[in-house]
Design a protein that fits this description.
Blueprint: E1 7-9, E2 12-15, H1 17-29, H2 32-39, H3 43-57, E3 62-65, E4 73-76, H4 78-96, E5 124-136, E6 139-147, E7 150-157, H5 158-164, E8 171-176, E9 181-184, E10 193-204, E11 207-215, E12 218-225, E13 237-242, E14 248-250
Length: 252
C-alpha cells in the first residue's frame, strides 16, 4: 500500500504527485521531451503540467538553458529543486519510515493562488497579485500583476479594499464581462490598453467573438461589431482596452 503525496496551501492545490514525479524526470534527464517519455505522456501534456504548476505556484520551477554545440538543456530552478527535494524526502518517509531532513520552510514562501470560480456569467476569469494600492478619495486604484509583463488597474471603493483585506502581495481573481473589453485605437492614451494577438475568431450574428492573447498565458474574450473594415482573423495584431470600473475583484 502506497499513499499519494500532494502539496497545497489551505484549500488551494499546488502540486500533485504526477507534477512532482515529472520534475524528477526533468532533473534526471534534462529534457521535457525525455521527461514526458519517461512519464508515459505526450510532450504537450508534460509541458501543460509544468506550465500550470508554475502558474499555481507563482514561481518558475524549470529553466530552459540556451543551446550550444551540445544542444539546450532544461533544468530545475532553485525553487523547483527545493520542491523536488522535499517531495523525495517525504516519499522516502512514506515508503521506508525515514524522517525527512529537509524543512518544509525551504519551499513555504510559495504564493497561494485562488481557485477560479466554477460558474459565472463573466467570460473572463483571470488571476493575479496586488502590487500597489493608490488611495483616491472614496475610490482606490488597485494595480494587479497578471503576468511579469502585464499590470492591470482596477477601480473599486475604499470600503471594498478594506472589506477584501487587499494589500500588496494578496492573490486575487478578476471577473470581466466580454463587453467591458473593447478594441482600442492606440496604446498609452488611457489605462489598461494592451497590444494582443487574435487567437480565435467566431462569428455570432452581427458580431465577432474574439479570444485575444495579451501576455503569455493571459487570454481575454471580447466582442467586436461587424462594422470593421474587414473581419478580424486569427493572428491579427490588435489593441484592447479593459475598463477599470467594470472589473470585479475577489479573494478567497
Amino acid at each position: 500500500m502506497r499513499t499519494a503525496i500532494g502539496f497545497g496551501l489551505e484549500q488551494h492545490e499546488l502540486a500533485d504527485e504526477r507534477d512532482l514525479q515529472l520534475l524528477g524526470h526533468v532533473q534526471r534527464l534534462g529534457s521535457i521531451t525525455a521527461a514526458a517519455r519517461a512519464a508515459g505522456v505526450t510532450y504537450k501534456t508534460a509541458w501543460d503540467r509544468l506550465r500550470n504548476l508554475q502558474t499555481r505556484l507563482g514561481q518558475a520551477v524549470i529553466i530552459a538553458a540556451k543551446g550550444g554545440r551540445g544542444g539546450g538543456r532544461t533544468q530545475l530552478s532553485d525553487k523547483g529543486q527545493a520542491l523536488l527535494h522535499y517531495y523525495e524526502q517525504l516519499r522516502r518517509q512514506q515508503d521506508h519510515a525515514v524522517e525527512p531532513d529537509v524543512a518544509l520552510d525551504a519551499v513555504a514562501d510559495l504564493a497561494a493562488r485562488p481557485l477560479p470560480l466554477r460558474k459565472t456569467s463573466a467570460r473572463n476569469h483571470l488571476q493575479g497579485v496586488v502590487t500597489a494600492i493608490a488611495r483616491g478619495g472614496i475610490r482606490d486604484v488597485i494595480s494587479v500583476q497578471l503576468h511579469e509583463s502585464l499590470q492591470l488597474s482596477v477601480n473599486i471603493t475604499h470600503a471594498s479594499t478594506l472589506a477584501l483585506g487587499l494589500k500588496k502581495g494578496v492573490a486575487v481573481y478578476l471577473l470581466i464581462k466580454a463587453p467591458a473589453i473593447r478594441l482600442a485605437q492606440q496604446q498609452g492614451a488611457q489605462a489598461n490598453v494592451f497590444c494582443g494577438q487574435v487567437r480565435r475568431s467566431r462569428r455570432l450574428r452581427d458580431q465577432q467573438e474574439l479570444e485575444v492573447q495579451i501576455a503569455p498565458d493571459v487570454h481575454v474574450v471580447t466582442m467586436a461589431g461587424q462594422n470593421q473594415a474587414q473581419p478580424l482573423r486569427k493572428g491579427d495584431e490588435i489593441m484592447v482596452h479593459i475598463d477599470p470600473d467594470t472589473v470585479i475583484l475577489g479573494v478567497d
